[in-house]
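Convert to structure. Protein one:
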Amino acid sequence: MEEALLKSSSLFPYFMLVAFEAGSLIRALVLFLSYPFVCLFGKEIGIRIMVLICFCGIKKANYRLGRSVLPKFFLKDVGYEGFQVVMKYKKKVAVSDMPNLMVEGFLRDCLDVNAVVGRDLKVVFG
């Protein structure tokens, strides 16, 4: 999804939105201050660190951002050419580096994707 559909190469704005909206101002500030260090570790470990900062302590039942606010931001960042290619096919499978919780609402509702393959988050005590 990130390489083919989105114009922006950085995933930081989406994680910042999650940290601020679902978490708090303090969580967003921690993510903002840790981002230079996240860039030093590379893409794979950097995404894991951002996921940890954004989602640690947030209850899955209370997380509605993936269905309400994030799709609007994803839709603004979708490239026209990528969108046209995706909409040509009837059956679609999306692969993402971001957690399913963040991208599944956008991909299923806006792009009619049949299946989403992404990171699963470990849920402990809800």
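Protein two, convert as well:
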Amino acid sequence: MSRSLSAAKANAALTTAAWATAKLLVVLVGIWILLRMLNASWSVVWPVVIALLLTTLTEPLSRWLRNHGWPAVLAATVTTILALLVVVGALVLIVVPVASQAEELASGVTEGIDQAREWAAGPPLNIGDDQITQGIDAGIAQVQERVSDIISVTLTGVGTIVNGVVTAVLAVFLMFFFLKDGHRFLPWLSQQMPGRLAVDVPIVATRTWNMLGSFVRSQAFVGALDAICIGIGLWAVGVPLVLPLAVLTFLGAFIPIVGALFAGFVAVLIALVFNGFTAALIVLGIILAVQQLEGNIFQPMIQSRGLGLHAAVVLLAVTLGGSLMGIVGSLLAVPVAGMVAVLWVYLREQLAEDAPEPEEHPEAEDAVSDPYAEDTQPEPS
């Protein structure tokens, strides 16, 4: 016996679906407006993001100094200076050895070009010097025809470099202020929030901060792993400048896609110049193998453990962020996914049937009165 559909139940289901769709559209519109606002104020948001990521690395030292009686200003100043010295030292480890072998490197590049021309002249390409000369002349003609385009691109590149320097300087100053006054932020924020938000917002902020710290530490660990593996490979092949290349690989790990490509290109170029074509191919194979293991196995596994996200979620987040915003999207994709996960977990806790009331929440008082668990001593005046 067939059963007919209930018109009342069907209308109720459609009404529920319509309301749910309308609410979802409102949320999506709000997210779209927020993203547009962030894009409009990106020149301010980007230095703040970089400063927060740097602070997650340097804040433990500043906190340790404060807990041992140092004034907040002095602790932040010493920590900032030490961080700058570490960065400068890393750059020195790269620049000085390369500069000391600049002459040998230049002659090696010339020899490499000559070897490439000899290889191109033989089978299977059989490209003669006349053809190479014609190609160079054609390239020069193209350059002359597009001088205006090259000038505009160059000026754009110079503007990008200037903006990068300004952003870096601003991020360093912001990092100093975050180190100096960051431990007072959550109590101040709690006082500004009305009602239940005075409890919920500090808790979410504390969890988000811990998540960012886990992300940066995991990224540093992945960079160190890349540097060690590639450094061992370069040493085994006999490539010079192993230490500068390893340091460059570590620093490049913090710049998605471009950092790894640039560090790998430099390593292959030096191998080609000093060790020949075969060694360069071996180095290229080592770098590709390490990068594949890092991008598809090590990084998703390490970050998923530190952020509480599945490795597949991390991999998809990086892919989506890169497709939407390029390099910046790849850099911010994982922390943004972690922030969404933190917010979702907290909302799920609060929406559970046995969730405690705000005043009974055991984490609320700790988040407001003691944003960092290790800050057990009073702040010196």
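The longest helix spans residues 197-237. The chain has a mean pLDDT of 75.
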